[in-house]
Known about the structure:
- The chain is mainly alpha-helical.
- The chain contains four helices and three strands; from the N terminus they run αβααββα.
- It has helices at residues 3-9, 22-32, 38-47, 68-72; strands at residues 14-16, 50-52, 56-57.
- α1 (3-9) packs across α3 (38-47).
Amino acid sequence: MSKIIDVVKSLPKLACVGKISDVDIVDAELQLRLSFATEYKEYLAEFGAISAKRLELTGIISVEYCNVVSATK
Length: 73
């Protein structure tokens, strides 16, 4: 397991979207015309997007302000 996965799992009151497919991750990269860092891809694959005690991290989710594609554009 990568360090990012361990760190995220240790956050208090963690809520996540859930696992995201490689196809959805590649689609997000194509929409943004960039390649995500390896750890970010691991985070997306495992969690999708997260919320943890006053912390929200973007990811692949239908909520616009938390969606990495919408937030980046």
